[in-house]
Automatic annotation (TrEMBL):
PANTHER family: QUINOLINATE SYNTHASE, CHLOROPLASTIC, QUINOLINATE SYNTHETASE A. Its cofactor is [4Fe-4S] cluster. Its EC number is 2.5.1.72. This is Quinolinate synthase. The keyword Zinc-finger does not apply. It comes from the Bacteria. Keywords: 4Fe-4S, Iron, Iron-sulfur, Metal-binding, Pyridine nucleotide biosynthesis, Transferase. It is an enzyme of class 2 (transferase).
Amino acid sequence: MEQQLFDYTRQAADGQTCTAHAWAKVPAPLNKPEREALKRRAAELLKARGAVLVAHYYVDGDLQDLALETGGIVSDSLEMARFGRDHAAQTLIVAGVRFMGESAKILSPEKRVLMPDLDATCSLDLGCPAEDFTAFCDAHPDRTVVVYANTSAAVKARADWMVTSSCALEIVSALKAEGKKILWAPDRHLGRYIQEQTGADMLMWNGACIVHDEFKGLELDLLREQHPGAQILVHPESPASVVAQAHVVGSTSALIKAVVEGTAQEYIVATDNGILHRMRQLAPGKTLIEAPTAGNSATCKSCAHCPWMAMNGLQGVVDCLERGVGEIGVDEPVRVKALACIERMLDFTAALKQRQAAGLVPGIGAA
Ligand code: SF4
């Protein structure tokens, strides 16, 4: 089956968002009084509209602070989904990328889900069109379909399981123990890492995150020589040559925990640099170094920061709340099918947490 390849620097004829389009929509930097005024306005509106802000670790630091200061959350995509579902607010403002807003809507159809910019998407989502993916699945009916959270609602609707990087290892291990063969999509690096760790039979889609795909093993090796005491923290969406050098491989939450609880003074971090904001807040005395993305003459599309995450800004939150723009919708038949694979994951992780708390199973380590 032929997979569609995207040129993420160019706008596709069908209007799909590219990095150039995304960078052009990233809000201009604001001075301190402007930021403070917008933050105050957004906080007032969140309260007045009974809304809650659910933000990802990769978005702008002001948005992360606003979420925490107003009773919302800053977290990875698994916790964002749980929090939005369980919170009493009837309006969720999701600061992240489109699949996160869709997941919130799938889980809470009765709630209004708004996003600062509906064009904020993800290379993994773009690189796995539902029609091609369905054909891929249909060609391998003997396999259990496991998709990463970073996919459209339509792709989730074709899947048996959704996973995030914080529970993928556990879920694939459990499926392997049941003798299941797996069809995995879309991130090839995360898929390879899970395959290596679990030994599961996995057929892979060939997608990648444009941010993590750019981390370079050779340059990381050179950087390590300059910082021999540093711990290397790597998100598993990174290439194998980078993962191989890691002291800790994990989800965004796991990498933050590693900095907070680690005894080292220096940390080289291979994930989107938006995460450094929260790491600095939680571990103020520690030195954080961005992992290298390219050699001297190379160019990069993201340089360790996701252009689609960067599209989220304070003004966008104010616009959502003031004018009701940026509302996410998911067709009901698609939503119902996609819900099944997300709920399967949430039920699995809730049960696993209970068993781990009771000491019945060891934690096998979050991806
Ligand atoms: S950082 Fe990568 S995986 Fe995350 S939204 Fe951006 S492109 Fe997608």
